Amino acid sequence: MAPEVDADWVNSRLKRFTLLACLLIHGLLIVSLWGRWHEALVVTVAFAGVTGANVVLARGFFSRHTQAAEATRFTLNMVGTVVYGVVSDWALPVWLYLPLNALWVDRFADSGARRRLGLMLVLVAGAALADGAAPEVAASFVLLSVLTYALSEGRVFLTHSTLRELARQHDELAQAHEQLEMAHRRAREQERLSSLGMLAAGVAHEINNPMSYVKSNVNALLMDLRACKHLPPELQEYVDDVLPATADGIRRVVAIVADLRRFARGDPGALEEYDLNEEIAVALRITRTQVQSRCEVEVTLGDLPRLLGRPGQLAQVVVNLLMNAAQAMPSGGRIFLSTRMEADEAVLCVQDSGHGMTPEVRAKLFQPFFTTKPAGEGTGMGLAVVHGIITSHQGRIDVETSPQTGTRFTVRLPRIPPLAMHLPGLSGGVPTPPKSHPDAV
Known about the structure:
By secondary structure, this protein is of the alpha+beta class. It has helices at 3-32, 37-57, 67-88, 97-102, 113-130, 135-227, 233-265, 276-286, 288-292, 311-327, 359-363, 382-392, and strands at 272-274, 296-301, 307-309, 334-342, 345-352, 396-401, 407-414. The two termini are 69 Å apart.
């Protein structure tokens, strides 16, 4: 059953038990008054009124009762007990009402219940002593009521403590279940990404083989046609324009396939010298269809020395940043990509004119599997991978963004990662001198 149903069931059982106890005590009181029918009638009328009021006032006890209702109920019970005692000359069954009322005291649900119980015991005992009741009887039942309350409060305290512990364990289990579900989701995404990487590498390999035949045949045809001295105008156009353009297109396809194979291989490999500007050119070729067909990319490359690292991973960084920038501008826009040297660091900047990010999104930007894209349109791994690669190169990445103002990622890479200085053969060595590059690609 649901917790609410269980609580209502227990509440109902407690009310029935209390009502039965009241009826039994009243029956004992009537037996003690047997033959004194006038007193028995007065006690019965008072009992009916007090019991009816208790049934109404205690309807929401343990769950929805109010302090005002409890104060009224205790006052009625106290007055009823005094009436029973005075009418019956404080017969023994009357005193049983005191420990019965003590059972219903719950200071955790009603902070004033303990004070009202103490007031009730003092007033009833005082009224009994003033009416000539035996002091030892009054003292015995007051003590019994106090002990009953103490035992009841102890059990209630243990119950509340157990419920709090169960609630805490439930929260921990819910949190652990959520983390486990997230781990399963990450494992499924990683498996899917691994499968896609292997598939991309396989497709690139399969494309590479027939492209070698196409490239060879087109080059042979172009050379044969150029060897002919007298060609009709139709074929001369192929020699001058069509076949050179086709050969250039084939070279671009081969370069893209080679970049894709290296990009999808996934093996970080050993540290080696690389040219960051060349890796940017690789990334631009890979993302030509997805990025440059929908956004204007402005590229400004400065003169950079050759760096030490894993060039395939750095190409992946640029690819992910370009894709992220393009996805931030679904209706198109401009991407500014630039490189420069600052001190002994190479600086790569990728800035877009998109919608930017809120501080809440910015705080979770590099968390794995965090994405603001709809389901099925992103895994949330792109920027997490970027952060991991930059960190592994002992570099850093900074983000400047705000809503409706675009975003700028600034990547700073050391010429030689500090950890690489301790590798054999690199102590005291530096990469080869810088190469010049055009200012734009």
